C-alpha cells in the first residue's frame, strides 16, 4: 500500500508538471501568433469611448459566464464558496477562449476544482452543465437571428440564405424539444461511463437559456460598439454566431484568422472597409481575449499557491455544515 501510494504521488507530480509545461507552450504559441505592434496601435489610437464601453461589457460577459458554474453548483449541490466558483470560472473561461476547450474548459477545471476539494464526478457534472448552458444559449439566439434573415449571405457562399433560415427554424425546434424534455420527461437520470447525469428541471433549463443568451448578446454588442455602430446589431450578432461555429469546426485556439475571415466575407463592402473590420476585431481580441488572459494567468498562479489552505478550509466548512 505504501509503495502504491508513493508511486501514485510521483505520477500525480509528473502529470502536474506536464500540465504546466503544456500551458506554457500553448501560451507561447498564442503569443507568437499575435501581432503585438498592431495591438499597441489599437490600444493607443482607438476610440476611447468605444473601448471603455466595451470593457464594461467584457466585465458583464465574464460575470455572466461565471453564472454557468453557479448553475452547476446548484445542479450538483457542492458547497464551495461562490467567490471561489466565480474565480475558477473566470480563469477557465479566459484560458478556454485562447487555448481551446480541452485546456481551459476541461483540464483547467479539473485541476482547480480538484485542488479545492471537489471529486472528479462532481467536476464532470459541472463541466457538462457549463458546456450545455453555453450552447443552449447559442442555439436559442442563433435560431432567432438565422430564422429572421438578419444575416445577408453573399452569392456563391457555401451556404445560402434559405438554408440558414432553415437551420434557424431547426434550432428553435430543438429549444422547444429540450424544454419539453426537461418539463415532462419521466426519466431524469443517466449513467455515462460511470458518471451520473441528471436532466435539469424546467426552471433550471429556462435559467440556462436566459443566462447564456445574455452572454452571447453581450459579446455581439461589444463587437457592434467597436465597429462604431455602423452595421446593424442583429447582423453583427449573426456573423459572430457563424464565426463561432466555424472556429469550433476548424479548431484553432482563439479562432485566430477564422473570426476575421468570416467577418470580412459577410460584412466587407456593406458599411465597413477591410481596415475598419480588422481594427474592430483586433480591439475585440485585445479587450476580450488578451487582457482577461493576462489577469487570469496571475489569478491562476495565486490560486495554485493558495489551493492547499483553501481546500483545508473548504473541508472544515463542509464538516460544519454536515
From TrEMBL:
Show the stretches that span the lipid bilayer.
15-34, 46-65, 85-105, 126-146, 166-184, 205-227, 239-267, 279-303
Keyword Cell membrane applies: yes
Q: Which Pfam families match?
A: LPG_synthase_TM
Give the source species.
Answer: Erwinia plantamica
Subcellular location, principal? membrane
The protein's name: Lysylphosphatidylglycerol synthase domain-containing protein
The record describes its membrane topology as: Multi-pass membrane protein
Report the subcellular localization. Answer: Cell membrane
Query: Known InterPro entries for this protein?
Result: L-PG_synthase/AglD
Q: Which UniProt keywords apply?
A: Cell membrane, Membrane, Transmembrane, Transmembrane helix
UniProt key word Transmembrane helix: yes
